[in-house]
Amino acid sequence: MKRIAVTGLTGQVVSSLIERAPRGVEMLALGRPRFDLSSRDMVLASLRNIRCDAIINAAAYTQVDKAESEPEVAMRINGVGAGFVAETAAELKTPLLHLSSDYVFDGTLDRPYREDDAPSPACAYGRSKLEGERQIAARCENCVILRTGWVYSPFGTNFVKTMLNLGETRDEIGVVADQIGNPTSALDIADALLAIAERLVDDSDPRLRGVFHLTGQGEASWADMAEAVFASAEARGRKPVRIKRIASADYPTPARRPLNSRLDNAKLQASYGIMLPQWRQSLDPCVRRLIEAK
Predict the structure, then answer these.
(1) Fewer Cβ atoms within 10 A, N terminus or C terminus of the chain?
(2) What CATH number corresponds to the domain at position 120?
(3) Which residues are catalytic, by number?
(4) How confident is the model over 43-74, as pLDDT tens digits?
(5) ω before 33 within 30° of 0 (cis)?
């Protein structure tokens, strides 16, 4: 495998893929204005012009709350646009890896979600991501759909960076404690994507295709994660910051978030032998990098 096309230019996963790509593997990042998921002609033309061994669809509309007021925009990018990528991948006979979200579930289950659990998104963003999954599955057999969530990294905008920035000026921060998920490093996601892409190129086994869950090991609430961020920061000389545990009802948002975002990764481990690190293990070096970058 020598060349991978990845949609997006500056997102957390794209930046992580560029950093993690091994020597000899070229990552070709495609983004606006030259590449726009909402334009079928642009998607087809761009991908047709690239001779690549695999395609990773990492670009997405990710403004969860804003999607409530412009659901058609989210759907055009995350749903219809994903279909354009799948259509092209099928035409080119190129393996496709597509990133989806824990938001395809409503969060009412009392255990981690498995791949065969029925999706039931509770917000416009989740509905757009689910439509993307449906478009991908209908148009491209040689594909892997990977649901992930609670993504953080040294890049872009994410919860860890937001907490560190708030901690510079506050001694106490209210953080939601009744939403539970699996914090996941984008760098770990990138490592997994590269390994999966290589397998797809070399192995036509249909059991390696389909829907999989891809998250860090272990679970946490947002408040748990914030406490871990500030413990790591304090160990590196930052001032202490207290976390005030609050309920989702105390921090209303336009989009309804799942209270349970936990995803079961057993299928991915059984099929690919891939298990991401425990979330605390990956969080600490991310905090270190963000502090050193200041």
Answers:
(1) C
(2) 3.40.50.720
(3) 125
(4) 999 999 988 999 999 999 999 999 999 999 99
(5) yes
